[in-house]
Amino acid sequence: MMVLQDRDRRLxxxxxxxxxxxxxxxxxxAKLAADEAAxxxxxxxxxxxxxxxxxxxxxxxTRRTTIQRLKTQQFETxxxxxxxxxxxxxxxxxxxxxxxxxxxxxxxxxxDGHRAAQKAAxxxxxxxxxxxxxxxxxxxxxxxxxxxxxxxxSVERGRLAKEVSSEVLPLYERLMKTKAGLAIAPLHDGKCxxxxxxxxxxxxxxxxxxxxLTRCEDCGRILYAGE
Length: 227
Ligand SMILES: [Zn+2]
Known about the structure:
By secondary structure, the chain is mainly alpha-helical. The protein has helices spanning 2-76, 80-163, 168-178, 201-209; strands spanning 184-188, 191-192, 222-225. The longest helix has 84 residues, at 80-163.
């Protein structure tokens, strides 16, 4: 029955290990998702800058066309007053173009920054993709190994359970469930190895004789003579 308990405890621990694997997988995948999001953020920022740049270029373009038109008008006019007025207009538009061009340059600089960040984020993503792939492969291998072991131990457990008398087995199984996977506890220094309560003398003697099934009077676990 001790061996049975050992196998049952192994099965419990295997089940616990198997239960943890989906969480490990989720954690690995979450890391990847975060890195993917970082790359996307840079990409989106670049797209946004690109649109803004196009708008600035368009704005500057219309102004340049206007300047050309005004210059033609200025060239064709004979009136000095109109020539002056057109000159002022042209200066005003040229200043606006200057402002727009400055903004374009600033935006291009900003885009360089985003490009560098994107490159770094992509490198980080590639690195963690390799890492996560390895991790997931490791988890798969672990799952297969644990499942193989679980099947083997289950078969052995079934064989061992048949060797336990049908009167004791239900009690053992009930205790396994209610006593945190420890149905059989060693007698140790006059105490129950399960709940650590001091046992009464007659119980200790009964356990040491080992002739009948003896249980801890406190927690109800089946006792055996420890060292
Ligand atoms: Zn006890």
